[in-house]
Structures are given as C-alpha cells and as structure tokens.
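Let us begin with a simple case.
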Amino acid sequence: MAKQGSGNESMSNNPPVSRAESTARIRKLLAEAESISARTSAEIRRSEAEARKFLAEAEQAETEAASAKLLLEKERRSERESLASNKYYHQSVKACMSQFNIWDRTEPDCEVTLIFNSPGGSVIDGMALYDFLMEFRGRGHKLTTRAIGYAASMAGILLQAGEDRQMGRESYILIHEVSFGAQGKIGEVEDEVKFVKMIQNRVLDIFASRSKAKRSYIAQHWKRTDWWLSSDLALDLGIVDTVLGLPGPSTPHKGKAK
C-alpha cells in the first residue's frame, strides 16, 4: 500500500498542461503544416511552370524544324522542276555559271539540258563558259545541249560542249570566223589580230574534234562569210548528234569525213 501510495504521488508530480498551452501547440503545428504545404505548393507550381516552359520550347523547336524541312523540300522541288522544265535561257554567262553551280551542289550527278536560241556574243566570255561546261561534265553530270530556232556564232560553239548535241528540225546553226573590233596604233591592232587568230584556231579545233569535218573544210566554208547550216547538213557533218522531230531515231550520217 505504501508503494502504491508512493507511485500515485510520483504520477501526480507531472504538472498539468493548461488549455492555453495546448491551444498554442496546436496552432504551432498547424502553422508548420501550412508552411510546409505552402512551400510544397510553390515547388509544385514552379515545377509545373518549368515543365510548361520546356514543353513550349520543345513545341517551338519542333515547329521550326518542320518549317525548315518544308522549306528545304520546297527548294529541292523547285530545283527539280527547273531541271525538268528547261526554262533557263541565260543571256548572261555569269548567271548561267551561278545556276549550274547551284545544281552541282544540290543535285550531284544530275542531268541538265542547256537550250540555245541565241545570236551569239562575246567570244572571250563564251570560251570561259565552254571551259566551265566541260568541267561540269567532268564532275559527273550529263550535259545535253540543244539549239531551238538558231544557235549562231558563239552559241554554235557552245553547242559543242554537250555530250548529246541536239537541234530542232527547223533550226539553224551559224558558223563564221571569229570577229572583233580593234583601234589604236598599227602594232596594237596587229597584236589584237594575232590574239584573235589564236582564238580562231582553238575554235577550229573544237569543231574538228566534235565532228566529221576536217579543220581545212570548216576554214574553207566560213572564210569571209556567214556559214549557215541546216539541221540536215549539221547532222551529216556531225556538228550535232540528234535532230528533233525526225520520224524515228536520227543517226548521224556514217559517210566519208569531209
């Protein structure tokens, strides 16, 4: 009984918790809970904002990539349509070279048809274009040249740059001696004549190497005159390989070289 009494005294030694203290503790716990909840909500909102930002950036990147792809496809389609339509009738050597360089970069080993309906032009610029076209062929492109209407003077020379040289049935080629203009002292004019004769010899080499006609034959027929060739004569001499519009495949005459 004494021990029991002693135990009861020990228990009664704990000071009783007042109602005010209990209320304060509860309020403290509630405040801490609210603080934790607020921080959690803020973190959730921040995470949601970052997620929306990343999603928006991803959608923007996807849209930009799709737009770039569509633009690239459009450019490639335009290039293919340009190749198919043969719509380029360049009057500028620089513009022609620029277009061919674009095709060389965007369509490796593509086939190109270069159409001439031209009275000719500068022999210096024309020979530069001739070298360019031969180099273009050397990079693996198939080049077809075609005369529609007429290919006169320098245009007739450029026609020879094609792997397959074509002309319309009612088209014509004009071949003549290299023409030039010169002024100044006699020595200066003589130097100019010497230079032009050098160019003319190279032109003769081009025609002779691509045809069945000898240099002497060509030189004889274009001396001091404009030598017009019909499609029949051009085919017979081997100046062209194909005449368009003939009934059936056209084959160059296999006769004796002139």
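The second case is a distinct protein. As before, the sequence precedes its structure tokens.
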Amino acid sequence: MGSVGPVTCGSGAESNVYFTKGLKMRSFKKAAKIGALVLVAALAVAQAFRIEKTNPPVQSDIRADASVKHILKRSCYDCHSNETVWPWYSNVAPVSWLIADDVNGGRKKVNFSEWGNYPGGTQKRKLEEIGEEVAEGNMPLPIYTIMHRNASLSQEERSHIKNWTQEAVAKLATNSTN
C-alpha cells in the first residue's frame, strides 16, 4: 500500500486559518483555566492572614441628643467608634483587609468612643469637619452605604447633623470663654 499525504479540508490557506484559530482558542482556554486556578489558590492562601477585629472599651462617648445619637450610631459608629459591628464578610480576605483599614483609619480621624479625651479645640475642629463632610455628602462613604443601605443619610438628616455640629461648636466656644 502506498502512503497517503496529509488530509486537508478546503484550500491550504483556508485550512491553516482554521487550524491557527483553533490553537489560539485552546491556548486561551488553557491560560484562563490556569489563571483561575492561580486566583483560587491565592484567595485560599490569603485566608491564612487574619485581621485583628478589635472593639476596645468605650472611654468617653460623645454626648448628643437622642435623634443625633441615633443617626451617628446607624451611619458612623462602625468606622468611627469602638463599637464596630463586624459583618460576616470581614472574615474573608482580601475584603477583610480593606474593612480593617477603613475602621482603623476612621477611628484615627474621629472616634466617638473617645470623644471626651479630645481637648476642646480638637473637639471643635472635629465637629466642624463632621458637619462639612456630612453636609457635602462625603460621609458616610458611598462604598459603605452600598453594603449598609440603612446607613445612607437623607438630606434632612444631613442638615440635622450640620445644625447639631454648629450648635455644639458654639456651645464649646461659650464654655471656653467662661
């Protein structure tokens, strides 16, 4: 028997195009599978690096009327107090790292659980910042309100916080002159 040459479908140039496309698709699928496996492995390894979820004791909580306190607790305390409610996803890296960083940063900026430890001038400055940030819609952070819909503030609540901060600043000014 004689040998048979290579079998092609269509003209030589046409079959090479289909063959090349097939190789590219298989290479892409293989690379995607390897990439997915590497991603899963990296996420699994990341779980070994746990965050420290702390809630130190409340030292001197901020004083405010009940309506203001309710808004602060609902919309601010998770990041700006020692009374953080750590959600289930704060146990899943790398999201947990972002949450811990936000909470630690928030507590450093303003910590309502340590309010009484701030000198009067610091309280005044922080109240002014709170009023501005809330009134301008910068706080609570939009990324926070995506997962915590009840933390969103209405325009009325923003105005209420702004008015409260202005009154508290005026009260601090009056107390410092007496």
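Residues 66-177 form one domain. The helical segments are 12-46, 66-75, 77-80, 95-109, 120-135, 142-147, 155-177.
Keep these points in mind for the review questions at the end of the chapter.
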